[in-house]
Design a protein that fits this description.
27% strand; binds calcium ion; 10 helices; 9-stranded parallel sheet; Spore Coat Polysaccharide Biosynthesis Protein SpsA, Chain A; alpha/beta; binds uridine-diphosphate-N-acetylglucosamine; 497 residues; UDP N-Acetylglucosamine Acyltransferase, domain 1
Amino acid sequence: MGDGDAAKPFTALILAAGQGTRMRSSTPKALHDLCGRPLVGWPVHAARLAGAGRVVVVDGPDRALAAVVGEGVETVVQPRASGTGGAVLAAGAALEPGVPVLVCAGDVPLLGPVVMGELLEAHARSGAAATVLTTVLDDPAGYGRVIRDADGQVARIVETKSGGDATAAELAVNEINSGVYVFDSTALLGVLPRLSADNSQGELYLTDALALLRASGAAVGALQIADRSVALGVNDRAQLAHVRALAQRAINAAHMRAGVTLTDPANTYIDVHVAIGEDTTIEPGTRLKGATVIGRGSTVGPQTTVIDSRIGDGATVRVAWMEQATVGAGATVGPFAYLRPGTVLGEGAKAGTFVEIKNSDIGRGARVPHLSYIGDADVGEDANLGAATITANYDGMAKHRTRIGRRVRSGVDTTFVAPVTVGDGAYTGAGSVLTEDVPAGALAVARAAQVNVEGYALRREQPTEVVGREQEKASDDRSEDGLTDGDGSGEATLPAS
Ligand code: UD1
Ligand code: CA
């Protein structure tokens, strides 16, 4: 054997061109999400880890899968969903004599590289033409049943998805076909053309290849595994939810083994690509999705969703929603914060309660503690934005940027009408609406001056004391003060005390 054979131990063929009608979805079944990776991505990933020389995915005619299977994965198109046998036929040209092929249904996501390796090994050891992975289920409904002959050899597999293929005795068998097999490529290619669609579904069943191999005098082996969960197929959304719970449990267990505290693992949802550093605590009700990366010694949650975001070491993120945002080391977020795409919170910075930030750079140590919307802004280091500071970043036509310098202190209820620039160390008065730039070190006050109406309260009370005698005069007085509606009706326009 040359080097080429050593680098090409087996070909993985993943069948994913089925319509997935039981999902009742406009999205192909293979693209449904399972913990951050599409269903079809699971066997692809496992096959690569198991050392597949080639990974070939059978796609449907609309080629929906080509974009998601990843680099180095080949796709072939099955022109019509004619059954699992038709799917393998469509990939016939990818099968090389002398290279065993691991055929794997694209909807059996929990089958990992270890079991794939065990199946390949069992196949190589026995010298059979085909080796099928089986398990025993309490409720085998819908699965193909493994029918063994008197000496225990696999005679054939009968289908049970729709009635008519299996007898009552065969339906009583609870050893099921996992949908994963290793074949001798040449032997498989030899029997594929003899598959018939003369069955209850009118499809070419790959499973019939086993009986055809037996009939040709070849041996068919089986590897029965005790861990039945790895063979679970996903045909409908209930099965998807069941498999998701198992996949999530495994992901969470791996994080805990790697030094992450999950306060309530059953109530923590972590996608498969998420990375978390040691001594970080994930509190209940938290979802970490996509390409999220979290550092060491941080606390995330409770009730927090983090999507495609980065959180540094020693940060605290509580009751928050983050999407494509970055939180620096030691920064604090929430409770009740919304960090939208393009938010970068510097080291030790704070986005506090009822704070929304979008496309903004919040400098190291800067604080946005309460009730603010900061959009399209650069906030300098150690600035402190008072409660209810708002950037008016949109003028109805376009977005504009707000530039706030270092150590700026905005008073509560400051509105920055963008584009506007505030120099380092400047202050703004409470309630200011800033439309002009503020020089460094200045105090900007942009609000109406306060007016105190002397004796107002007393004059309001007078009419009741002078009822009947001076009523008319009192009414006139109030009109002069501008405190009535001006039509002489006596209705005050200022709020009653
Ligand atoms: C199949 C097996 C069954 C086994 C079960 C395990 C057959 C006939 N039956 O049944 O014995 O117990 O898996 O989960 O093989 N596909 C194609 N092209 C097609 C049809 C299907 O690529 O024309 C793909 C599907 O996308 C899917 C896989 O093959 O990923 C299995 O197809 P599915 O229809 O789900 O087969 P089951 O009825 O589950
Ligand atoms: Ca299936």
